[in-house]
Design brief:
The complex is a heterodimer of chains A (about 525) and B (about 190). Chain A has about 525 residues and is an alpha+beta fold. Chain A contains 19 helices and 21 strands. In chain A, α2 packs across α4. Helix content of chain B is about 40%, strand content about 25%. The chains are: A alpha+beta (about 525), B alpha+beta (about 190).
Chain lengths: ~525, ~190
């Protein structure tokens, strides 16, 4: 069965495979890896038992040896059965997947419903030229389908077929009349257009990205089980360097300046280590980053160990975010994000990162080029943004922060706590500055096609979305806002909600009307 | 008892439909300011009030019985706590009743050719407008109480996510059904 299937792959990939196919046995590797991953992420649960039982276990080799053997056999059997029961077939432009050993799962997915095609190549697949094909639907995360081991060529062909299928379906409609040509080209293999690489990232860029964006959680997620060992290791490491952390932390009769110095040094070392990890995380995710364009599709490829490939059709793009943290502002770098439908709500942050099309730490001119490429005629950086009302400051500073500070300050003055007063004052000034910057940054603008929002504290983020892609409009007004002819507007997009607080009532209403009109009058599909 | 329809989301339109939107004649966008709002079904308000009274009364009765029963003698401290609880729950019940009376009268919906609007809120007024073109699927939700009173809750799902499900409670079943039909028909009109 497996041999015939292999020949099938190369012979007639364009034809459908109406019979149930088994994937390559290499998938067993994948199942073992995902089992181990699952085990590691749950190891915290077993650790206490292992710890307390370790002496007992060590003293009775006759007991633990069979247990380990049994576990290994169980693992082998389990992964083999997972592999054995994993079957798929392609029929009438549907893809069907059967999987599961005890609880069976059957997914039937029409090609036309497929939102996203992703290729994921773990390290151990690379030598055998296999890859995982993941198919996302616009609907719930439950409907996701993943074929865990396909020959890379075949996966590529299947991907092209699914995407071409979608074009063929939509080309009948009026709004896509110009894409007829595209379909012909896509279906015609000889004439297949070549991919154009529109952005790459060098190691330097990734290091900058690691510094400016905390990518440490990529490690935290994977290393959580080893935290204990790790912290022990750090203590030993510092001891070897002649610094006894434990002694440091027990603040004895040391002068204040010495403690401060130690604290500063420790903070610095800590920050340095975190930055190193963050850089490593950035390289892990974005190594050999390329963003390329093929017809109306944008393809992101990156990854050091597991290679990810995410493909997005331009029409699926919901919003562009141009993100700059305070450090990015200083270094003049930008993270550009192409937001699609938020399918992956339940997925962990790490996976979400891999799913998104993000261009890490690019320079302003590169950013403008990319934004103009996806949204022609956009005025993200040239349009004048209207600030939100100053009452935003009054409410947050005047009615919340200042009274809170006054009460605290009064309490500390009565209690005669000079240090605490200084601390509270510093905090108050810092928060006031943040609130002021929040107000200063928050702006909005709109033109014929797009709505723009600017936000941020110390950094600055620009959001731009085609107005007609709005899913829902919310208009909010409290008594207090109404008295001052103010309101808040929320735009619900498939990529999340964007809000505009404290804007003029009339402007708010006209923004809502305009947005609704664009959403209702255009015949363009939002996805 | 939720009925559920999936709306076709693929556009296969050949001829462009004229968008009927009356105020366009006046060269002015239709405004959410000038919507013709309808209140929710009066029986829904009645149901909510009654349910609130009933639930408060039930809790009070249970607490009262706990206090007066002789089977398991409770320490005097517990008896005191129960007295306070009865007082607090009674007070909350009255406040909730008053709030429901005021708040439910502030719930309106409006139907236009291209969208549905729901408005609610006493101090913080919220007006949510859902364009019909963006609706993915429609559901009518009916709990046991709603079934008894012949009511239904209309839920409209868009790609905005579960957190932004558009919902109108307290519609008469026939109204809700005709609204659902209106939405489904609208979809087919605009897409074929």
């Amino acid at each position: 069965m497996i041999e015939t299937e292999k020949t099938d792959f190369d012979m007639d990939a364009e034809e459908s495979l109406p019979h149930w196919q088994r994937i390559s046995p290499i998938a067993i590797l994948y199942f073992i890896a995902s089992f181990i991953k699952g085990l590691l992420s749950n190891i915290v649960v077993f650790l206490p038992a292992l710890y307390f039982g370790s002496d007992f276990i060590m003293e009775n080799p006759t007991l633990w040896l069979p247990v380990i053997v049994a576990l290994v056999v169980f693992l082998m059997l389990g992964t083999f059965l997972s592999f054995y029961f994993f079957q798929y077939r392609l029929k009438d432009d549907h893809i069907e997947i059967r999987s599961g050993v005890i609880s069976k799962k059957h997914i039937n997915l029409p090609f036309a419903r497929i939102q996203n095609v992703k290729l994921e190549q773990p390290l151990y697949y690379r030598w055998f030229n296999y890859t995982c094909l993941q198919l996302d639907t616009a609907g719930s995360a439950k409907q996701e389908a993943k074929i865990v081991a396909l020959k890379t060529d075949f996966a590529e062909q299947l991907k092209a077929k699914i995407l071409a299928q979608h074009l063929a379906q939509t080309s009948g409609s009026t709004e896509n009349s110009d894409s007829n040509e595209t379909v012909d080209q896509l279906l015609d293999n000889q004439n297949r257009p070549t991919e154009e690489i529109i952005n790459t990232r060098s190691i330097t860029d990734l290091i900058i990205h690691g510094l400016t964006n905390n990518r440490i959680w990529i490690f935290l997620g994977g290393l959580a089980p080893f935290f204990d060992d790790f912290s022990n290791y750090i203590v030993v490491f510092f001891q070897n360097m002649g610094i006894d952390i434990q002694q440091l932390l027990t603040i004895a009769d040391m002068p204040i300046w010495q403690i401060t110095l130690y604290a500063l040094t420790l903070t610095f070392i800590f920050l340095f280590i975190i930055s190193l990890f963050s850089i490593a995380g950035s390289i892990l995710t974005f190594y050999q980053y390329t963003l390329s364009k093929l017809e109306d599709r944008y393809i992101r490829r990156s990854g050091l160990f597991t290679k990810h490939e995410v493909t997005m059709r331009l029409s699926r793009l919901q919003m562009v975010i141009r993100q700059q943290d305070w450090l990015d502002v200083l270094l003049k770098r930008i993270n550009l994000k192409f937001e699609q439908i938020n399918v992956s709500v339940n997925q962990s942050q790490m996976n979400a990162q891999n799913d998104k099309i993000i261009v890490p730490s690019i320079k302003p001119d590169e950013c403008d080029k990319l934004v103009n490429d996806v949204y022609p005629e956009n005025q993200m950086m040239t349009i004048t943004y209207q600030k939100i009302s100053k009452r935003f400051l009054l409410k947050n500073l005047g009615f919340i922060l200042t009274p809170l500070f006054s009460v605290l300050a009064l309490l500390f003055i009565i209690a005669n706590q000079a240090v605490l007063i200084t601390a509270v004052l510093a905090l108050y000034l810092f928060l006031s500055m943040l609130i002021f910057m929040r107000w200063y940054r928050w702006g909005y603008a709109s033109d014929e096609n797009y709505t723009y929002i600017r936000k941020g504290y110390l950094g600055v983020d620009y959001y731009c979305f085609p107005t007609y892609k709005t899913q829902q409009v919310q208009y909010k007004q409290s008594w207090f806002l109404k008295r001052h002819q103010l309101c808040s507007i929320n735009f619900v997009l498939a990529a999340g909600m964007q809000s505009l607080p404290y804007i003029n009532e009339n402007i708010g209403i006209s923004l809502a009307n305009e947005t609704l009109f664009q959403a209702q009058s255009t015949k363009k599909s939002w996805m | 008892m939720a009925s559920h329809e999936t709306v076709k989301d693929e556009n296969t339109s050949q001829e462009a439909q004229e968008l009927s939107n009356k105020p366009m004649i006046n060269e002015q966008l239709p405004s959410i300011e000038h919507l013709i709002y309808q209140p929710l079904a009066p029986i829904y308000l009645k149901m909510r009030r009654r349910f609130n009274l009933f639930s408060t009364a039930t809790i009070l009765l249970i607490l009262f019985l706990c206090q007066k029963q002789q089977f398991f003698p409770l320490p005097s401290q517990a008896l005191n706590t129960i007295s306070y609880l009865i007082l607090a729950i009674g007070l909350i019940g009255i406040l909730r009743y008053l709030y429901i009376v005021i708040a439910d009268k502030k719930k309106y919906f409006a139907l236009r050719e291209q969208d549905i609007t729901y408005r609610c809120g006493v101090i913080f007024q919220k007006t949510v407008t859902q364009p019909i073109l963006r609706i993915q699927h429609v559901e009518l939700k009916r709990g046991p109480l709603e079934r008894k009173f012949g009511l239904a809750c209309l839920q409209l799902f868009s790609a905005g996510g579960a957190a932004h499900t558009f919902e109108i409670p307290g519609l008469l079943l026939e109204d809700a059904e005709s609204m659902r039909q209106f939405i489904l028909d609208h979809k087919t009109i605009s897409n074929t």
